Amino acid sequence: MASEFSHIHLLIIEDLPDNMELLKLDLQDQLPGVKITEASDGVEALEKLRAQDFSVVICDVLLPRMDGFEVLRQTRQIPHRETIPFLFLSALNQEEAIKKGLALGAVDYVTKPYDEEILAYKVRNLAQLKFLQDELRQTQEELERANRFLAELNDEKNQMLRLLSHDLRSPLSGIRGLARILQTDEATNPDTVKEFAQLIENSITNILPIIDELTFISHFSAGQLTKQQCDLAQILQNVLNLLDPLISKKKIKLSMQLNASSLLADCAKLLQMLHSLILPIVENANPHSTLRITTDIPSAAAILLRIENNATEISDAMLQELQGEAGNNTRPMSPLRMNFRLARLIAQLHQGSLEMAKSGDNVVIRLSLPVNVTNES
What we know:
Radius of gyration: 32 Å
Number of domains: 3
Low-confidence stretches: 325-332, 373-377
CATH class of the largest domain: Alpha Beta
Shape: elongated
Mean pLDDT: 80
Oligomer: single chain
Strand order of the largest sheet: 2-1-3-4-5
CATH architecture of the largest domain: 2-Layer Sandwich
Distance between the termini: 41 Å
Largest sheet: 5 strands, parallel
CATH topology of the largest domain: Heat Shock Protein 90
Number of strands: 12
Number of helices: 11
């Protein structure tokens, strides 16, 4: 095939034009489709090495301005260029020169005249080695990112558990106090019993959502993602259907521009995340205000969701609380803050990002999600 080796990109450093042309013809003949970049001296070569990566560097030893040995030494100091295979190709076949090149980190030293087939085999094998090294480095970087994410996720989970535990203390203490009073003579008054029963029911009503959040966090911390292709527009529509009674009651106008967008994710968690984001916006929106929801695909790898309300009762102080910027984290967590933090955790689990900003009475939520979620956290 004419482009069989188009994935290989070589940097050839050779100061003699005739030698450069012959070497290019030999390699292009043996490796159809190979991409070749030229450099006529060591200084030019380093400039190109700093600008882009290469599969293999084929370098002469005797060069103007900077010899091949120094090019190799300085290349090894360029970030992300440490693993580029260096092959010296030189008429200088002295044993000391060969030893020096290999000692500096060259993977091979070929003397001229060379056998073009053998040279091509060496280049092809070195390019494959570079590809495997790059793949290994990428895997290591992904593992490091995953470990950092899991550590942050664990910290976030622990912080939320502390806050939830704090939130449970107040209603439970109230229930215990009421129960003690009901064991006294005051319990003989039916009106008192009825009043206390109502207070206990209200406290339990406040506790149940916290229990639900604890259950969710327990499942969430296991990092279970049931991934499938999710239609983001359909999930948004499902959320709005759930909130329709409240939206209709407040006569909130909807403005939606949803591009067809599909992503590999946990559809149930995405629905819960979007519900956690839109519900407090609707609850705090002023009647007859406008809720704008738009999706955009800024790149083939990401989807951007924007949720905006132009008249809301969310204050700057509430926004600071949502972002965790105000007060200390032992204070009881408001439902608004709980929803936002859970939504942010789900976004992080999907390798996305979530931010909320306020300008005047306008609140804007920006949610960015990758199209393909590959992390098996």
